[in-house]
Amino acid sequence: MCFSLCVSELRCNPGQFACHSGTIQCIPLSWQCDGWPTCEDESDEMDCPSITVDQRSRHGKESIDNRHSHGRSGEAPHFHAGSGEKSLPFSSPAHWKVLDHQCGGANQSPINVDRKTARRSSELGAFVFKGYNTAPAGAWSIANSGHAVQVNLGSDISVSGAGLPAVYNALQFHFHWGKPNGNGSEHQLDGNQYPMEIHIVHMHSKYTDIKVAATDPNGLAVLGFFYKVSDTDNTNYNTIIDGLQSVSYSGDSVDLASTFRLDSLLPSENLLSRYYRYRGSLTTPGCAEAVIWTVFEDPIPISSSQLSAFVNSVHFSASGQTEVKMQDNFRPVQALNRRRIYASKQASMNSGAIPALSIVLLLFPLLAIRLL
């Protein structure tokens, strides 16, 4: 019986190869047997004739830059297989370095924020939030980008201070989550993954084009906040939750019913000085290593029903395509390599880290005994 395979083939257009399993459904037929696995189960490279590395380089997938583009948001909207072909769902991050060489760089995000190895920095003080405490005039739009739910902001919202080298203007915020019974934050804290994470994307004030900013190591500043499940709804999220039903499919976009204070989405002001800092990248292709990351220590409470609204009501797929729910839309943690993680003046430091002076004091009695 070929039931599962035959059904898979029926969901793809002529000129496309149907992956046997996984969330990537259809890829261009020219990508089959080209030496670069794209399907999660690598079925596109099964039963293929052997090809050499030199032959593989002529198949074109390594020059995929023209198959994705960057919008004002600072993250690639989605993989597209080409004109008239279905888009590829957010998936298979292990192969991203094939799709875009920057995704295999040494300074990639997200990471595990390991507080045992973090260094305290006296430069990481309070943020200056401008425009966060007012509900601006005009409209904000909510959109399904094909890999996340994103809210596009207006002007006059910015952050500075806290060790940032400049003023950074807010562009948008978006969310990453898991499955109904699984966590889905991109970053981890001491190896712990949270149910969801929000990224508030800012661009250096000297730039007006996100593509130009993404070429500068100081071009972008992203604030990341974790979520935790609470017993009651967080009513500050009602406007966003209500908007989800209008952006169920990739490409959907509507204006929110109203704007609101951006800081109403965040932990209380006294907790915003507790954070960790490192240099990294965007977390979708092209993975530009142009981000000053701030990951905040204290999670935001939302109810299980609010989390479920994200996990169960939004799709990777566009309207009219085979429905693929948008779940696990996070990139796994990447190697820290030689980078350093810095803790703000008020952030917690893991008790597993023993200060150097303490080590000396612990060893001193042993040394004294040996000298007697």
From TrEMBL:
Disulfide bonds join C33-C48. It is an enzyme of class 4 (lyase). CDD domains: alpha_CA_IV_XV_like, LDLa. Residues 86-345 form the Alpha-carbonic anhydrase domain. InterPro entries: CA4/CA15, CA_dom, CA_dom_sf, Carbonic_anhydrase_a-class, Carbonic_anhydrase_a-class_CS, LDL_receptor-like_sf, LDLR_class-A_CS, LDrepeatLR_classA_rpt. One of its GO terms (molecular function) is zinc ion binding. SUPFAM superfamilies: Carbonic anhydrase, LDL receptor-like module. Its cofactor is Zn(2+). It catalyses: hydrogencarbonate + H(+) = CO2 + H2O. Residues 52-87 are annotated as: Disordered. Keywords: Disulfide bond, Glycoprotein, Lyase, Membrane, Metal-binding, Signal, Transmembrane, Transmembrane helix, Zinc. Residues 55-78 have a biased composition (Basic and acidic residues). Gene3D superfamilies: Alpha carbonic anhydrase, Low-density Lipoprotein Receptor. Its EC number is 4.2.1.1. PROSITE patterns: ALPHA_CA_1, ALPHA_CA_2, LDLRA_1, LDLRA_2. The chain crosses the membrane at residues 352-371. One of its GO terms (cellular component) is plasma membrane. Belongs to the alpha-carbonic anhydrase family. Reversible hydration of carbon dioxide. This is Carbonic anhydrase.
